[in-house]
Amino acid sequence: MYDLGIIGAGPAGYIAAERAGQKGLKVVLFDKSKLGGVCLNEGCIPTKTMLYAAKLYDHAKESSKYGITIQEVGFDFGKIMERKNKVVNKLVAGIGAAMKKYKVDFVNAKAEIIGRTKEGIEIAADGKTVGCKNLLIATGSEAFIPPIKGLKRDEIYTNREILQIKVLPRSITIIGGGVIGMEFASFFSSMGTLVTVIEMMPEILSGIDEEFSLQLRTEFTKKGVSFHIGSKVTEINGKEVFFEKEGKINSVTSDIILVSVGRKANTEGLGLDKLGVEVEKGAIKIDNQCRTNIQNVYAAGDVKGFSLLAHTASREGEVVVNNLTGRKDIMRYNAIPGIVYTNPELSSVGITEQEAKKKAIPYKVRTLPMAYAGRFIVENEGKSGFCKVLIGEKYDEILGVHMIGNPSSEMIFGAAMAIEMQMRVKDMEEIVFPHPTVSEIFKETMFAFHE
Amino acid sequence: MAVPVIMPRQGQSVESCIITEWYKKKGEEVKIGDVLFAYETDKASFEAIAETEGILLDIFFNAGDEALVLINVAVIGKADEKTDSFKPGNTTSAASENKQEEEFQLKVETKTETAPLFQNTGETKISPRAKKTAEQKGILYRNISGSGPHGRIIEQDILQTAASNPGMTSLAKEMAAGSGMQAIQGTGVGGRALSSDLTQSASLNNSGYEDKKVSNIRKIIAKAMFDSLQNSAQLTHHMGADVRKLLAFRNEVKTAMDKGSKDNITLNDMICFCVIKALKKMPEMNSHFLGDSIRTFSNVHLGLAIDTPRGLMVPSVRNADDLNLKGLSAHIKTLADSCRKGNVDPELLSGKAASFTVSNLGNYGVEVFTPVINLPQVGILGVNTIMHRPADLGNGVFAFVPYIGLSLTYDHRATDGGPATLFLKEIKTQIENWEEKI
After folding, report:
1. Matching CATH topology for A2-143+264-324 and A338-448?
2. In this structure, are residues A409 and A341 in contact, taking their beta carbons and an 8 Å threshold?
3. What span, in angstroms and rounded, lies between the C-alpha atoms of A446 and B395?
4. Which position among A270, A447, B30, B83 has the lowest Cβ density within 10 Å, counted as fewest Cβ atoms?
5. CATH superfamily label, A338-448
6. φ, ψ for residue A342, nearest 5 deg
7. What ranges do the domains of chain A cover?
8. Domains of chain B, CATH where assigned
9. What is the second-level CATH architecture of the domain A2-143+264-324?
């Protein structure tokens, strides 16, 4: 009998397994695929590896601006993808080592809930049945394939298949200008591929502060990416994608079609009905301690249907383990950083201005160009970016921080801490920021509230 | 020579009082007759007057502190005089309690366990000093389990908690400071209370309910009522009485008042007068049931249920049968006023002070109710609203007649249905045969 059974070895599952094992719980972890889940194998890590190569390539092309002469700039796509695999394998192996260290039993097979016994919950996998006192469902999500006329699943690419391509396409049509879509747009456009993005909503990157989405779209347009916003894909015929824009049907033809319109929680075939776990709109319903409606059954990560982020998933896994091991812990979603790893990076945490308006939260806002931080000028010749901060109208508490520019992804955690701790402008002013760093832009924006 | 100021004893049953406010500060000059401090018992509030003059050298109990009666609460004397010998710790009356507190404090020091932070425990006993420290440090003291006597939270508990408690975010502190809001839980990092954890203690919070501490008077009422229903055999008989004569008399009173009379004899006064007469005639109900004996009183001590802003109070009119109607009316009025002001003599509030009680809800339109006996009394009369009922006036004449509802609850341990009904009937007879004149 295990203390904790975990289905799904992504960032929710393996982190929970690691933390639980560390605390002495007997843990069994199931996954039909490799350790690391989507994040490590088909998401965060491989894409960031590719994006870093693209960024280096961008830098190399621009190096003359910094006085560096490079005779010939080029790349070997095969090597880029090879290194990506190497990075992924290294990290997957690292998780394997951690699982061994914390005595987590990893069952590399599809798991299915059998039911409940007096002792706990029974799970079948790999022809065997094991019992566990507690169950964490962390089966994640997969690409949602919309019902589009003429769409053939084996002819289109999702985040999974596109990581396996051997040859750089000359052109790509990206259906869905969300985070995944934009990151691939960034990569492929840097590599010289002709990129077309078709987005149904009036702006790309829905959920992100609109000023920033617009800024990114503008920069990418300059880079040669074609955008069709407010456009609905009506049909796919081979390599040709038809879409309706302002009442007219247009089409674009490319080597590859990437579908990145959203994610779908993996709740099917798990045997959730055996326990009566409540599922809403295809996702498992949880409370702020990641408890489902069934006692001893928890869910974390994408399978719950919102905040589909690896770091949200890991934190949820930790919340589950903490509560199981006697430390009361609550999952908060108000200070989860969100990053688009494009070049330039777009980082944000907390509420957006649109959200504040919609929810009628009284706020004050200041936006400063990134150039207010000297280091940004040092390292971003000819580039622009900005930082926008929202604070509460009455108490000046930090509500939201949004940045576009490199390397905002590395410093947004500071803003997340400020929001978590409900810091006010005057509290932030007492924090010492290292100089010269781009992070100083955050502190500079604090002082802009005095104007 | 320095002299102590003691906490006055207010009635035999009062063991301690809470100081509500100091009007004089330490070091201030005091004259005879100056009000030194205000204090209150469970039921009433009083002011302590200086009986000597000099400098208020020391104060041993702050506002909000509870002090045993007859204990030294302050010292008045000449400047530079030593006050240590007057400290309650050095007197016998308080020695035991103080020692207890010391022992508990020692225990706290060795305690390493963290007090559970967010358990709901209903009421919170906290010393004012601890409360102040808690507020300064932003500690949510509501759910700390106190280590003082009777679970009272002492400063040590707060300091202990502070060491292990994440407290509130600076934003939450700022918001709480200006608004009287309190954190009811901590959902932030490490259990810190966030601004969203604050709730207005005086208004409904987000969860749709409000937790309010039970006041002392409420506790006393709760105990008295529960004990009464648990420990006696109560039942209620209802009967109506024709009040045409009473209403006619009431009109006369009003007319007289229009002409300048000050005697506002109310319907309630009249009913009480009738009840007293009935009790004199049938003393069986004018009794206390004491388990193995029944004490029947020769005089009527009439208890009156009075609704006050602090809650229900039941003071008694001692020897009410010695009073005439005007006297009774005046007496009831004075008693009710002092209850509402909170300066009623606590002795008069005891269940033992009265021999029978009247509770009048007629003004509120109550048609029938079952009053609860104020033990050890054996009966209580509930007075209801007046309703018109058809009645045979004789000679084939039927008319609507005003009837007042009477609900007699009695303790079946002390008496039986027969005598109780006869008593109720007697009250009815007294009402219907009203003979008093202005």
Report:
1. no
2. yes
3. 95
4. A447
5. FAD/NAD-linked reductase, C-terminal dimerisation domain (3.30.390.30)
6. -80, 175
7. 2-143+264-324, 161-258, 338-448
8. 3-90 (2.40.50.100), 217-432 (3.30.559.10)
9. 3-Layer(bba) Sandwich (3.50)
Place of tokens 């009480």: B272
Please give the Cα distance from B131 to B64 (Å, whole number): 10
Residue B187 and residue A395: Cβ atoms within 8 Å?
no
CA angle B389, B394, B395 (to 5 degrees): 130
Q: What is the model's pLDDT at position B43?
A: 65
Q: List pLDDT tens digits, range A168-227.
A: 999 999 999 999 999 999 999 999 999 999 999 999 999 999 999 999 999 999 999 999
Cβ separation A423–B170 shorter than 8 A: yes
Angle at A428 between CA A422 and CA A432, to 5 degrees: 140
What does the pLDDT look like over A304-343, one tens digit per residue? 999 999 999 999 999 999 999 998 899 999 999 999 999 9
pLDDT on residue B208: 61
- Chain B residues bordering chain A (beta-carbon distance below 8 Å): 118, 169-172, 174-175, 187-189, 191-192, 194-195
According to the CATH classification, is domain A161-258 in 3.50.50.60?
A: yes
Query: Exposed, middle or buried, A7 (CB in 10 Å: 0-12/13-18/19+)?
Result: buried
Please name which of A7, A2, A20 lies closest in space to residue A319, comparing C-alpha atoms.
Answer: A20
Q: Do A397 and B189 touch (CB under 8 A)?
A: no
Which residues, including other chains, have CB under 8 Å from residue A179's CB and lie 6 or more apart?
A205, A338, A340
* Contacts of residue A432, Cβ cutoff 8 Å, sequence gap at least 6: none
Spot the catalytic one: A228, A402, A435, A450: A435
Determine the residue type at B87.
K
Collect all residues of chain B within an 8 Å Cβ-Cβ radius of residue A288: 187
Beta bridge partners of B182: B199
- Amino acid code (one letter) for B224: A
CA-to-CA separations, A195 to A172, A185, A258, in angstroms, rounded: 5, 6, 11
CA distance A211 to B65: 59
User: Rounded to whole angstroms, how far apart are CA atoms A276 and B211?
Assistant: 35
ipTM: 0.76
Averaged confidence pLDDT in chain A: 96
How many CA atoms are closer than 13 Å to the CA of B398, on its beta-carbon side? Answer: 3
Question: pLDDT band at residue B134, thresholds of 50, 70 and 90?
Answer: confident
**Cα–Cα distance for residue pair B49/A255, rounded to 1 Å:** 98
State how far the alpha carbon of B421 is from the alpha carbons of B21, B211, B293, B425, in Å.
Answer: 51, 43, 22, 6
- Residues B190 and A26: their CA atoms lie apart, in Å, by 26
Query: Cβ separation of A422 and B169 shorter than 8 Å?
Result: yes
φ/ψ of B25, rounded to 5, equals: -100, 160
A435 classed as catalytic: yes
Q: Which amino acid is it at B180?
A: G
Residues of chain B found within 8 Å of residue A422, distances taken between Cβ atoms: 169-172, 188, 194-195
Return the HEC string of A30-89.
ECCCCCCHHHHHHCHHHHHHHHHHHHHHHHHHHHHHHCCCCCCCCCCHHHHHHHHHHHHH
Q: What is the pTM of this model?
A: 0.61
DSSP B126: B
